[in-house]
Amino acid sequence: MTSVSSAADGDDLTLAVTLSEATEDGDWYSDSQPLEISVALRNDGDSSVALEYNPSCPAQMTVLTGEPLTEFVTLDDLRTCLEQQRAIDLLAHQTRQLDSFSWDWSDGQGEVISSGPVTLRFEFDNASMQEFVLQFQRQPVSGTGLTLVISAALPPGGGRTTFQPGDTLWAHAGLSNSGEQSVTMPMDVGCRMQVSTSSATSEHPSRLTDIGCGSGSTLAPGESTSLGWWSWDFTEQGSEIAYGEWTLDFSLTGLADSTTSHQFRFKAGGNVSSGTPLALTLTTNGVQDGDGVLRVGDLLTISADIENTGQAITEVEFNNSCWALMHVISSDGLIVLDDRLPLDCEMEHFEKKLDPSETLNVMLRDWDMTDNAGCELDNGEHLLVVDVLEYGLAGSWAFEYAGDGSGAACRAANQDLSTVWFTVEELTVLNAGTLQEEVQFELRLLSSEPLDIFWPQACRLDLTMHRSGDVLPHRVWSEACDDPGGALQTIDGENALHWGPFTVDFVDAAGDPLRDGTWMVTAKTTGTPSLSTQLAHTWSTPEVIEETDSTSTSESTEGEGGGIASPVDDADSGTIIEGDWNYVTTDTGGCWLLVDLEGNEHPLVGDDTGVEWQPQPQLQGAYWVHASEQVSTACAPWAPGIVVDEVLGERIVEPEAAAADDEVAGESEAGGFAVNAPALISVVASTGFIGLAMLTIAKVEWIRMPASRWGLVLLGLVKKRDNGGEYQRGRIVTYVELHSGIHFRALLSSLSMSNGQLAHHLNVLETDERVWKRRDGRKVRYYSAMVARDTPQEELPVPVLQPDPNSLQGKILEMLDIHENEILNLSQKELAVKLDTSQQLVSYHLKSLEQWGLIEKEKVALRYRYRLTDRAVLLINNHDLSVPDE
Q: pLDDT tens digits, residue range 633-643?
């Protein structure tokens, strides 16, 4: 609140108006309580003053709002002023109260003043005029389905989650409609976002920001709108906050129950400001269209200048070539471009004296709207930030990008989520066959190796329900998680995330049943990386008959990454099966069997795919099928059979060794017979002896790698039997014997299994105590039962290293080998150029290879250069590694 007074000419009378304190944290007023006003008159002169006034309306009050100021209401509009006069003598330096009253912030007709600055002007004849400027916010109103979304970025540079002096917290504010109906923003135009900070030991009052509430706009279900960007330098009332964990609470003054929180950690240590009188100015150029939106093909030119804002000459100096660094933040709170990854600055000294108002350009660059991975930006709001670290200066420029949408596919190709499962579990149909039929399910997120998930905004699951074949969804909604914005989680096999249970019905808002068909529910996480899964349910409107049992329930299992539910009744509505095709012969003929992930065998009756399709050896896939009792005589032992309705996905799984071309079949449970069964038994025995031998020589480096290669050749002779799961588990046990200490991803790649298959069979083998595992840093390593569980870590067998020639690590080793005899070894930057990849990715793998003792580095001038160790040379000479010609 500010107050302004002006004295009347030649008069010693002064108005002395006092107002009640602000109701909201002492920062602004609200119509939740009336404003209490007291009007007094003070004689500042040295002699008495005789005066007359109207006691029913002693002073005039005018309320002004808007810009320019416009009269909203006067005191005459709020109460009746009678024709009265009262005479008083006001002694020298005396103050006398004339009136006190309350104002309910309205115009007397029920219309409340708009949120924002309010000017109260008080006047009295022959006395001074007094003005007050107040901050006013209307009481919050309900906005069903509206959610305030705050997405705050971590510090730039990668890997750092703690803020420190000199950093700036940048956060994007937006509103989303998570309801089922369109919503028009009920807040008025003066509504503002407020922020408060707190820790375990201190709490600071809320403060209003310049960010509005999107008043008047309309959001459809699932739609969002941007409110703006907010920044903070980690100070309160000019003082740096203390070290520790802090919470930021954001809310909209005009929207009830809109509070959302963001947690962060701050490392105190004194402000890094140099005290030099400098200001940073950003200039951008390159937006082709006049609407201010950047598009594909635009080349943005960014210029940053520092100016001497002082009155004297000041000296600026830099100690490296990185005078200014840029990073770009998306509206999801993700840093999509960062000059610090990698930070490649040449050591050099520069100094210059700047006259008052003189400027120095510290950045001039072009940018083509791509991120650190070289992929196009996602569409939406972004913030470009430039930091001059030497002087603690930061500048920003907000922009909107509208591209062709190719960025998501580009980044997806660079991600490795091969050991991550986001699945549907506990899938159950309730009240089957009635109008109250519902599907209940839970969701689980699991990774066999540690997976970091960053929630830039409050954890949320986005769900969509649609009917197969329809273009528009029937329903879009969100389910909140427990983690606040800014949380970083690590997920592994011992720390799975579970959500639910969730329930979905099949009636619309009016209570009418939905159309018959296959209904899909898709669940997607809002974290990074974003994961999705899906379930399907076949819904048929039930016929209304007497004595319907509406309490029956049935359960259905889900496949990897999704599930399908169907009520148990006479008509089979179909299911999804994933597995491998095998052909077996019996006394009455041949039969194709689909062996699923659990080892169950399903005989093929026929197909209704509508295309030319038939199973074949080494074929693996996922299929939509329905049951049939009409099996052939040859397939009768496995009845009932299946009819393939749709092929969801297939691939050919190549055998492990090219030398083994003939399929070796084992005796099936249904009484089939095997060809060349004695050969199979001898090979299994051979590989068992090889496993024992490998454990003996595992500590001898020069023997271990060649011997492993011959062991793999013999292992490749072990062919697939037709009894499903036990065959696969035999492969796993034998391979683990040969490669004690192998981790999940390497095992997955070597055995050409799906994620679900390998995880399932490893769980069975652990339960049967045929293999066991031990955590080694971020990896989980597996050992056979032939290795004692209590073996000390340093005595455990070392896994045989076999770099994939197509992996980046294999290419790095081969590239260093090619350039081994040059005068200068390759640097990180030179490797990135030769391998056509990013420096940050090369840096990550160089660090891993160095930890494994395969490379070593030495500093030459200002750069580190890398060369192979003797161990790596031996490894390359014993493996067929090659990279494409440069």
A: 888 888 889 99
**Dihedral (C-alpha) 691, 696, 699, 705: value to the nearest 10 degrees?**
-40
Using alpha carbons only, what angle is made at residue 445 by residues 439 and 450, rounded to the nearest 5 degrees? 175
Mapping DSSP to helix (H, G, I), strand (E, B) and coil, where does residue 702 land?
helix
Give yes or no: residues 867 and 834 share one domain.
yes
Kindly calculate the radius of gyration of the chain based on its CA atoms and give it in whole angstroms.
37
Roughly what angle, to the nearest 10 degrees, separates helices 808-818 and 828-835? 110
Q: What's the Cα-to-Cα distance from 16 to each of 124, 572, 814, rounded to whole Å?
A: 11, 86, 86
Closest CA to 614 of 576, 637, 583, 574: 583
Is 803 part of any domain? no
- Are residues 747 and 819 part of one domain? no
Looking only at Cα atoms, what is the longest distance across the chain?
130
Rounded Cα distance between 626 and 180, Å, is: 35
- Hey, what are 5's tokens? 């007074």
Domain-located, residue 648: yes
CA distance 192 to 170: 18
**Domain's final residue, options 373, 408, 443:** 408
Q: For residues 270 and 156, what is the distance between their CA atoms, to the nearest angstrom?
A: 20
CA atoms of 141 and 160, how far apart (whole Å): 39
Instruction: Say which residues have a Cβ less than 8 Å from residue 655's Cβ, sequence separation at least 6.
Output: 618, 661, 716, 719
- Residue 665 · residue 617 · CB < 8 Å: no
- Tens-place pLDDT, residues 61-103: 899 988 888 888 888 888 888 888 888 888 999 999 988 889 9
Residue 720 domain-assigned?
yes
Q: Residue 177 is part of which domain span?
A: 146-266
pLDDT digits (tens, 9 = 90+) for 712-770: 333 333 333 334 577 788 888 888 887 788 877 677 767 777 766 787 788 888 888 89
Examine the domain organization and report whether 640 and 747 are in the same domain.
no
**Tokens describing residue 242:** 């203390």
Which two three-digit tokens encode residue 764? 């069975």
CA pair distance 838, 831, nearest whole angstrom: 9
CATH number at residue 686: 1.10.10.10
**CA pair distance 740, 760, nearest whole angstrom:** 19
Q: Provide the CATH number for the domain around residue 646.
A: 2.40.50
Q: Each residue of 684-721: pLDDT tens digit?
A: 333 333 333 333 333 333 333 333 333 333 333 333 33
Strand-pair partners of 18: 38
445-469: pLDDT as tens digits: 888 777 777 776 777 889 999 888 7
Q: Is the pTM of this model over 0.70?
A: no
Amino acid at position 60, single letter: Q
State how beta strands 554-555 and 420-430 pair: antiparallel
Q: Which of these ranges, 379-383, 679-683, 826-830, has the smallest mean pLDDT?
A: 679-683
Q: Does residue 298 contact residue 520 with C-beta atoms inside 8 Å?
A: no
**Nearest alpha-carbon partner for 460 in 407, 531, 519, 562:** 531
130/236 same-domain check: no
Regarding whether 467 and 514 lie in a shared domain, the answer is: yes
Q: How many domains does the chain have?
A: 7
Residue 211, domain CATH? 2.60.40.10
Structural domain ending residue among the three candidates 790, 825, 856: 790
428 and 399 in a common domain:
no
| Region for 316 from its dihedrals, namely left if φ exceeds 0, alpha if ψ lies in -120 to 50, beta otherwise | beta
Indicate if 775 and 873 belong to the same structural domain: no
What is the C-alpha end-to-end distance of the chain, expressed in Å? 70
Q: Which two tokens stand for residue 460?
A: 């949320």
Q: Is residue 478 within a helix (H) or strand (E), and if so which, with residue range? A: strand 475-480
CATH number at residue 49: 2.60.40.2360
Is residue 659 included in any domain, yes or no?
no
Phi/psi of residue 97, nearest 5 degrees: -75, 130
Q: What angle do CA 556, 558, 564 make, to 5 degrees?
A: 65
**Three-class secondary structure of residue 196 per DSSP:** strand
Domain shared by 55 and 175, yes or no:
no
